[in-house]
Amino acid sequence: MKRNHTMMQFFEWHVAADGEHWKRLARLAPELKAAGIDSVWIPPVTKGQSAEDTGYGAYDLYDLGEFDQKGTVRTKYGTKQELIDATAECLRHGITVYVDLVMNHKAGADETEVFRVVEVDPGNRLKVISGPFEIEGWTKFNFPGRGNEYSSFKWNFEHFNGTDYDAKKGRTGIFKIIGENKDWNRNVDHEFGNYDYLMFANIDYCHPVVRSEMLEWGKWLVDTLQCGGYRLDAIKHINYDFIREFAAEMTRKRGEDFYIVGEFWNPDLEACRQFLDTVDYQIDLFDVALHYKFQAASLGGRNFDLTTIFHDTLVQTHPTNAVTFVDNHDSQPHESLESWVGDWFKPSAYALILLRLDGYPVVFYGDYYGIGGPSPIDGKREAIDRLLSARYHKAYGEQNDYFDHPNTIGWVRQGVDEIPGSGCAVVVSGGDDGEKRMFVGTKRAGETWTDLTLSREDTVVIGKDGWAVFPVNGGGVSVWALPVEQPAGDVSALENILEADNREEAETSEN
Hints:
Largest sheet: 8 strands, parallel, barrel
Helix content: 25-40%
Strand content: 15-25%
Structural class: alpha/beta
CATH topology of the largest domain: TIM Barrel
Radius of gyration: 24 Å
Number of helices: 11
Number of strands: 25
């Protein structure tokens, strides 16, 4: 039987801009696999505006840290060869790599051009607040360091539909470019009237040449890196029809197993459903609504009703399309979508994504290893490792919920015969010390279960009727189960188990 899959977002905003990150990934690959991580979402791999750019200020999509452009050969994270080596090392250890794609905009143009625009109201991009006039915009991309290697395509203002800076007058604004068939893409999020424009020079996906170029680039990148999937950035700002076309083309190129998840930062479930309908459910979405529930729970404490934690979330309505997460690089403190989940609730939130039946959970690098920058935050690796171990060894089988108290909830995973000793009982408290009486099965009668989080030193003996009372500390989480034979953190022992699983999966696929 295949084990549970778990993703790690392998970066946070303040990862050191020392060009060592791809080497770091290669070095940590065996350690991640041993912890139960079998896929990693890595940051944008393409050349940004500088050696410090996180990759979201995308400059040259064909430069993976190979050409001397923008004052650097390497990207913030390393060179192209180091990236290829890290990807190969991950694959060698059974870890799939998902690459972050920034396809909404381009930044750091090589030259300015003069073209006609109208200015629009930032609060309603459908409202024009000026007559036509000329600006000097940064929209010409010649890529002098790369030349025509890999692609001869050069970008100019005709390939964009908006920009935010007039170099002629040194003025910022949202300027919609005027031209034949030139307008905001309509099939985007409707916030601010039309949310096609986000930042920098906005790519026009109504332009057929642009669509063709971006499809070719997507296929080139996957061939170059041999990655197993993509994470698409800022897709609520990109023509949904193009996203559908892009996903279909990548699947045709790489097969049905090629995985795509999109950042559709909108907690409204109807908007998510409409988007998934439009793209024919070819991609998954991050469960933004659940993230905000976690934040609300961490802020509300005993005043938050834990029985509602999954109400109006993507994992509740579209469980097979939901990628669940606690925090990420945008929600971390001081960033654009800051909505940090309080530290006291972090272990409970991770239990709620790692130990349940539905959703594809993501562990955030910043939660695991810590966050740098001006306001450092320590990582919670030890606590998360215990939950990862429980996910890998215990969280299988039928799920029964006991969501019957606003401050104390629990659930049981009944386990499966194929994984001896699997099954667990989880209890979460948002208030005082609590307990849950839950049924784990008559075949468990007489077993002695311990708290795998090590939050409690007592044990629970399962009754003859298969029921037991499982306690939890106030504001905490406990995961009750038979002790794990190989303790979390025993890298060599866990690696042996994982290698055996990999051999089994390989034999199965060959047959």
